[in-house]
């Protein structure tokens, strides 16, 4: 009889025990077939604050929203820390889109440290005016900044079908008077691709997936490949949080990091022992019932053994 009561009380105790110990995946989510995990998130308060209000899932389509506009997310590569974006008005090899409808790529000032188009991503600015800052000694010096990036550039791009469809002859494009109709450069040399500021009609963006070397512009991958960064200190905060069964998030008001432990939030991690010894009295009180149950449960278990 005593054994039975003990068994029942253990069963009852294990329910709150599981509940009070961590919430490892409360922030993980999916949009279509894309997994959204730290530092990204769809729910407010989840993920790193540098990536807040960035991703939205609309009818299973993941959208990325920054000051220059909305892009469809094609892929998030957590191993290489990159995110691949598609803009419907981005020119490809098959289709050159002019008329200034493309987004370009401009991030909010506060978000700039966290998102940067990758160094092997080429931006090709199309139909920019003679007065464009690109040809006025911008960003520095008096040389035109156009150049090849990772073996991709305008000379090859001019060979694309899209230009033929526009009725522009290849030679005319490359050797006309005035500025070139296409100017290729890496993001780093201009820091922002604002088509109206640069007075350009359109743009293309492509990248190569190293170490594969592709032969021509018909085989480049069109899209914007963005690297994302989380400072090492913030990354280790998150690892420690997850290791103790928590989910990494941030304070929605002050943007400081928070480790979400299910029924409570910690500014370090969900290790209750550490919390009780280092935390303030009020924080410790918050979590007392959970740890009390845990202590009793462990005591009962050892008693039963
Ligand atoms: C996701 O689905 C799309 C088609 O809907 C497919 O092209 C893509 O390769 C899939 N991505 C992954 C990571 O499975
Ligand atoms: C923990 O933090 C998240 C994100 O700021 C918030 O949504 C949630 O309500 C907090 N939970 C508790 C128990 O305070
Ligand atoms: C692009 O530049 C124009 C003109 O300088 C400016 O009005 C606009 O706000 C900029 N767009 C973005 C997204 O920063
Ligand atoms: C880019 O590379 C092509 C050959 O692939 C070369 O003809 C061209 O001069 C290069 N352009 C620049 C600006 O370096
Ligand atoms: C990331 O860590 C640094 C150094 O500990 C800290 O100053 C910064 O506020 C953290 N960032 C966020 C978003 O919490």
Q: What distance lies between the first and last C-alpha atoms, to the nearest angstrom?
A: 17 Å
* Average predicted confidence as pLDDT: 82
Number of distinct beta strands: 15
Number of domains: 2
Apparent shape = elongated
Largest β sheet strand count, sense and barrel closure: 6 strands, antiparallel
The percentage of residues in β strands lies in 15-25%
Going by helix content, strand content and strand pairing, the class is alpha+beta
Helix content: 25-40%
User: Strands of the largest sheet, in order across it?
Assistant: 3-4-5-6-12-7
What radius of gyration results from the CA coordinates? Answer: 27 Å
Low-confidence stretches: 4-20, 274-305
Q: What molecules are bound to this protein?
A: 2-acetamido-2-deoxy-beta-D-glucopyranose
SSE order: HEEEEEEEEHHHEEEEHEEEHH
Tally the helices.
7
Organism: Ambrosia artemisiifolia (Common ragweed)
Pfam families: GUB_WAK_bind (PF13947)
GO molecular function: polysaccharide binding
Keywords: Signal
Give a quick precis of the structure.
Residues 27-87 form the Wall-associated receptor kinase galacturonan-binding domain. With 305 residues, this protein is α+β, with helices and mostly antiparallel strands.
Description:
It is a single-pass membrane protein. Residues 1-20 form the signal peptide. This protein is an alpha+beta fold and 305 residues long. The strands form four sheets. The protein has a six-stranded antiparallel beta sheet with strand order 3-4-5-6-12-7, with no helix packed on it. Mean pLDDT is 82; it is low at 4-20 and 274-305. It has helices at residues 2-20, 154-157, 161-166, 170-175, 232-243, 272-278, 281-304, and strands spanning 29-31, 34-36, 55-58, 61-66, 69-77, 82-86, 115-117, 121-126, 182-186, 202-207, 221-222, 224-228, 247-250, 257-260, 265-266. Helix content is 26%, strand content 22%. The protein folds into two domains: 2-26 and 232-304, no CATH class; 80-228, no CATH class. It is built from seven helices and 15 strands. Helix 1 packs antiparallel against helix 7 (281-304) and helix 6 (272-278) crosses helix 7. It is elongated and about 70 Å long. The structure holds 2-acetamido-2-deoxy-beta-D-glucopyranose (5 copies). Residues 45, 249, 251-252, 258, 260, 264-265 line the site of one 2-acetamido-2-deoxy-beta-D-glucopyranose.
